[in-house]
Fold this protein.
Amino acid sequence: MTESMTTWVSVILHWMAVGFIIFVGIVSAGLIILYFIDRFQTEHALRHNFPLIGRFRYLLEYLGQFFRQYLYSSDQEEFPFNRAQRSWVYRAAKNLANTQGFGSTRNLDHSGKILFTHCAFPVLEKETVSTPPMVIGEGCKYPYRAPSFFNISAMSYGALSKPAVLALSKGAKLAGCWLNTGEGGISPYHLEGGADLVAQIGTAKYGFCDKSGNLSNEKLREWAAHDQIKMFEIKLSQGAKPGKGGILPAKKVTAEIASIRGIAEAKDSISPNRHPELEDNEKLLEMIQLVRDVTGKPVGIKFAMGLPSWFESLCQSIEHKGAERAPDFITIDGAEGGTGSAPVALMDDVGLPLAEALPYVIDTLTKYRLRPRVKVIASGKLINPTKVAWALAMGADFINSARGFMFSLGCIQAMQCHKDTCPTGITTHNPRLQKGLDPEKKFKRIAQYHQNLVHEVSSMAHSCGVSQPRELTRDHVRIVQQTGRSIPLSELYPYQ
C-alpha cells in the first residue's frame, strides 16, 4: 500500500470514529432528555415509573399486530380474516393451484361449521352448464342482464386510491362482473376500465345532488346516459357502521376527490346517517320510483339489517302500493361487512350478521310474494367458495365482495385503511405508496380471483348434483351444532 493510500485510509477511519462518537453523543443526549421527560411527567404512570423502558410497550403493542399475523396465530385464527382465507384468495388471484395434501387442517365438528352434502351421482363435467345471466329490473326501460353471480361490492374513489379503482374497473371488465362505485360518486377511473357499473347514491348524494344537497334529476339523467351505468343503488346503511354515514378523513380528501364529490378539499367528508328526506317507507318507495322513472334503469336499496320488523313493514308497504313499486334489487349487508372505517362500537356490536339477516330477507320477500320480482344480493365477508356457495344455497341471487377483491389486489390486512398509510397503495393517496400498485398488472389478478372462485363454487354445486350454483338449496347444506352433529339448513330455516 502506498503512503498516500495509507494517509487516505487513516483520514477516513479518523472521521468515521469522529462521526461515530458524535452519533453516540447525540443518541445519548436524546435518551437522557427522554429519561427526564418520562420521569417528571405524570400523565403516563408506566413511563414515569419506568423511564425509557416503558416506551417499548407502545412499540411492541404496534408491532404485535404484525407478529401475530405472521408468527404466532395459526392459519384458522385471526380476525377479520384468518391466514387460510387470505392465502386462498392470494393463490386464486395469482392463478396458482389451491390444492392441498394430507387432509383438511380445519376442525370439521365445531359449532357453525358449514358442510355441503354431495350426492352419490354428481354432475359429470360434460353435463355442466355455465350460469346464465340473470335479468334485474324486468319492468324497467333498460333492464340489466347481469352476467355473473359474483361481483365487486361498493368501494368509493376516496376510500380507495386511483390505481386501485382503475385496476378494479379493468378487472371487472375482463371478468365479466359489475363494479359498485360506492357512495363517493362516479370517478373517471370507474369508467376508464370499461366495466359495468352500479352507481351508488349515498346519504350525502355525492355526484347526484344539486348545490343545495338535494337529489338532482339532471345529474341522474346525465349519469344514466352512460351505457356503463347499469343500475342505481340507494344506500340506507352498511354493515361496517349501521346507523352512521360514510367517513372519509380530511387527509384523504384530495382536490380531485373534493371536485368529484362536490365538497371542500382537505376537510372530513362525513355523510348524514340517513337520507334527510326519507322519513318512512312511503318516502323510500317514492324515491326508488323517482330514480327509476328518471333513469329508466333498475333501482335497488342497500342496508344492514337491524330491527327485522322494519323490513316486514316495508314489504307490507310494497304490497299495499303494488309489486311494481318494489325495488328491483336489495343488497343485504351483514354486520360483518367492513371496508369502511367506523367507530369500534358500531363495527363490533350493531347490526345482525348475514347468517341471520339473509334468510330473513329471503323468507319475508317470499311471504309477500315478492320473489323473484326483487333480486337479492348478499354481502359481508363472502370471499371464499364455501361462504359464497352457502349464500347462494340460502337463496341469494348474487354475491358482492369488497375485501375479497382487495386481497386479490394485494391487501395484507394492515388495518390502516383510514390512516392514508396503506402499505400496498390500495387505500392511500400518498403517491409514493401508490407506485407499488400497477393497475396494468393487478387487474388480471382481479379477473383470475373471480374466475377461480366461480369455478370452485361451480364444482361444489356439481358435487351436490346440480348443474350450476344457483340451483343449490338449503337442503344441500348442513350446519354443525354445539353437540357436534349437523342438521340441514332447511331445518334451521324452513322454506316459507
Notes: The longest strand covers residues 229-235. Residues 88 and 99 are 10 Å apart (CA to CA). The radius of gyration is 27 Å. DSSP finds 17 helices and 15 strands in the chain.
